[in-house]
Amino acid sequence: MKLIGLTGGSGAGKGYVCAEFLRQGIPSIDCDQIARAVCEAHSPCLQELTDTFGTQILLEDGSLHRRKLAEIAFPDPEKCAKLNQITHKYILQACEAAILKAKNAGIPVLILDAPTLFQSGLYQRCDFLIGVLAEYKIRLLRIIERDRLSEKAARERLDAQLPDAYYMAHCNAIIQNNGTAGEESVALQVQKIIRDLGIPGIGKQ
Q1: Dist. CA 130–CA 172, nearest whole Å
Q2: What residues contact residue 17 under an 8 Å CB cut-off, 6+ apart?
Q3: Which domains does the chain carry?
Q4: In 91-127, at which residue ranges do the beta strands (DSSP E only) sit?
Q5: Strands, E, within 114-171: which ranges?
Q6: What is the pLDDT of residues 102-117, one digit of tens each?
Q7: CA 71: distance to chain centroid?
Q8: pTM of the full predicted structure?
Q9: What gap in Å lies between CA 136 and CA 138, rounded to an integer?
Q10: Partners of residue 112 on adjacent β-strands
């Protein structure tokens, strides 16, 4: 099975790109969903987070208050690093299980949609790496609307992430997803990558 890592910052539109790959016959694993699952109430991951950041990161029902955790961790590089240190091991374990399940199901090509592909080390499992990029101001507006954040909180989240230059230096291919006039459509960019990879039976839709 060929494993394609797909990554990029918040608001870059990774989900939109994955939907286009799916239309071309390539499914994906959503590591954001996995990250939410491993932090469910009473999970070992959430217990570690609570021990580190305090009970203020919990909602009344015992589940994770994600916005509160983000407010605490993202502005502080040391706390952000600690957050990643705690969560990544649980995410990696769950991702490996999902990859194995897909392989056993006979899926020939799989997208690993992982915002922290490089930080977690998951990139080492991949045969090909794709970075999804969009202009800072576009990403900012997207996550303010999507996550109902203040501009300050949105900027703190984006500023805590890897710069575009990092993805451009470390990925095998880049997809631009600004949605602006004159930019090649995501569909065409995805189709080109599939052609370049030369995967039999994929990209015929």
Answers
A1: 6
A2: 6, 130, 132, 175, 177, 186, 190
A3: 2-195 (3.40.50.300)
A4: 109-113
A5: 128-133
A6: 999 999 999 999 999 9
A7: 19
A8: 0.88
A9: 5
A10: 5, 29
